[in-house]
Amino acid sequence: MTACLPDSAPEPVFLHPWHAQVFALTVSLNEAGHFSWPNWVAQFSQVLARHGLDKDLDGGDDYFTAWLETLEMILAKDGAAPAPDVERLRGDWERAYLETPHGDVVRLAASQNA
C-alpha cells in the first residue's frame, strides 16, 4: 500500500492572468527580435530600482507593473507603440469595460479601434 502525500500543490507563478500575459508578450517580442534581452534587463533594472525607492516591492502587482512600464517604454522608444497611442487605447479599454454589463464580453467599438 502506498502512502498518500499531503496536498502540496505548488504556489502559482503568476498571481493574476495579466502578469502571465505581459510576461508572455515580452518573451514573444524578444524572440521576434524587437529588442535584445540584455537591453530588456538593463531597462527593467532601472525601472525596478525607481519603483523600489518608495517601498519594498512584493513581487506581485508592483513587480509586473514595473514590467509593463518597461515594455511600454521600450516599444515607445522604437516607435512600435508610441506613448500617446498606448494611453488612448488604455482609455478606450477602460471606457469599454466600465460600460459593459458584468459578465458580458468587453469589446472596443469599431471607431475606437481605428
UniProtKB/TrEMBL annotation:
Residues 10-88 form the Nitrile hydratase beta subunit-like N-terminal domain. It comes from the Bacteria. Signal peptide: none annotated. This is Nitrile hydratase accessory protein. Pfam families: NHase_beta_N. Transmembrane segments: none annotated. InterPro entries: CN_hydtase_beta-like_N (IPR049054), CN_hydtase_beta_C (IPR042262), Elect_transpt_acc-like_dom_sf (IPR008990), Nitrile_Hydratase_acc_put (IPR023808).
